[in-house]
Model the fold of this input.
Amino acid sequence: MPHASEPEYDHLERLRRLLPPVAYERLAAIKDASLLKWIAEMVGLARPSSVYVVTDSDEDVAYVARAALERGEELPTKYPKHTAHFDGPRDLARDRKNTRILVPGGEAIPLLNTYERGAGVREIYELSRGIMEGREMFIAFYCFGPRGSDFTMYAVQLTDSAYVIHSENILYRNCYDEFVKRAPDLKYARFFHSSGERDANGWSKNVDRRRIYIDVEDGVVYSVNTQYAGNTVGLKKLMLRLCVRAGYRENWLCEHMFIAGVRGPGDRITYFTGAFPAGCGKTATVLVSDTVVGDDLAIIKNVDGVARGVNPEVGMFGIIDGVNPVDDPEIYEILTSPETEVIFSNVLLMDGGEVWWRGKVGEPGPGMNYAGRWWPGKRDESGQDVLPSHPNARFTTSIRYLKKLDPRIDDPSGVPIHGMIFGGRDPATLPPVLEAFDWEHGMIAIGASLESEKTAAILERVGEMDFNPFAILDFLSISPGKFLELHLRFGERLSVVPKVFGVNYFLRDEAGRFIAEKVDKRVWLKWMELRIHNDCRAIRTPVGYVPLYQDLVKLFDAHLGKEYPEERYVKEFSIRVDNFVAKIERIWGIYSGIPDTPPRLFEVLAEQKRRLENLRAAHGSVVSPFKLEKIESLQPSAQG
Ligand code: SPV
Ligand code: MN
Done:
């Protein structure tokens, strides 16, 4: 915590004593006393043996990548620009339990993990005393957004991990120069990270003392005794929490959403955002769209009545499990090209330097993986097969390698957002695509009501639904009620209001088989694109608008060269009334326990339930879209 009363001079003096001359000069060029005080304090606390200040130069970027290899945080593979990193068997994912929002008084926030701020900071300081002894601390500066943009936020990362900085150098724009130019007028977030002691494998030893504490008041995040990027890379999910708070205060949206362009008639490009919980088709949707702005995060602001969005990142930290040359040709090519820079995490690194993950062509052979030495047939103590590559294995690479990269990725004014998509894994209720009646209905009945099926890992819970509003529950720093209120408020002030859609790629038939094929996403995107421009009609149902059969027939033919059988349409777009009513009751129950939920949520859900019950009384529990087409008037297109 900065000591506001000490004169600046003392801190420069202290830094001069603590740092090597080059590091000192680079920091002293940033005329921001409170930043320098904080750095001096953290260096004094963690006691690194040396400090390296990373500027934006190629030499510095190369130094970090080399350091990651030399210090065993990354291992070489058969291509010089590809490396492999292992987090260790107990550090393979985000740690929900030990990730806490620090708030004064430890005030409870519904569905969030909060902790008393003072106690949290004290605990971190205890854990961090001397934690970097014998190691080098890196200090690096980043833009969270395009240069020179009103959307952009700034951040300083302190860490003893070259892997973390190497990742950030790929995922974000280095911005030391902005700090030099604009201090002390630049506002920025601060991240302090240490892997803590590492064992012979390079894994963090003290994961029982892993803590990720987010001090939202001060804009500081502390992360210790962990390496997994979701816990350590400051500008990813840690920044997201700070950004959500800033947006709430200032009336803009910070979202766990991709941004992608879809081409429509006359070559127009229409931009969509998409929010999906992990493993529900987010990346796949990005990759079947026509241009890519971002794959994970979005900052959206009201600019003259138009919702405009930027991707704050320039890289991808994507799930690699299952990536294969048939379904994911573009990513596969990036991951197997010797020309690209890639950090593979928690894949199998075979003897001889080849990497393998599920989906990679060829068989896995002996090597190193997330649990140590691996060989075909290896079992753990309980007799279970040890997977060669972990299900949460990831790749870190630049988004600029994508052939479909949108040229506006660096545009300081972002792109206009005309559609917002929410998607979950839902076996039995939601149709493949559904359009909300309006912004408020979409935000409440689709975004705030987002759920996703629990995975098959816990057998008896298959089919149960996980509540994940806006696909951001894990990354919220304010109550889900307040987050919804922000969206309602945001929409009211727009003059061009994006259309809101729900998608579901996981609807199953009676035999439990997925009904849709993977490629069908492209048709749903094209339909949404037409709807935004009023270029096709739609059928009004109690839950929103669904496509007309003849429009889908045309789109399947034009974009996939496929037939679209009538019976599939009926299976996919019939309204399953009972399931929808059950969903409303679940969502109602959850928000009943969230005191700051906007009252409109209950009204909108009640209206929807009433419409569903009326439909059921007249036409039964499952109502075909052909029937709905007859009983409900069609929503006209602009052409009539
Ligand atoms: C996600 O889980 O949504 C991710 C990976 O993008 S992590 O960085 O771990 O959050
Ligand atoms: Mn994500």
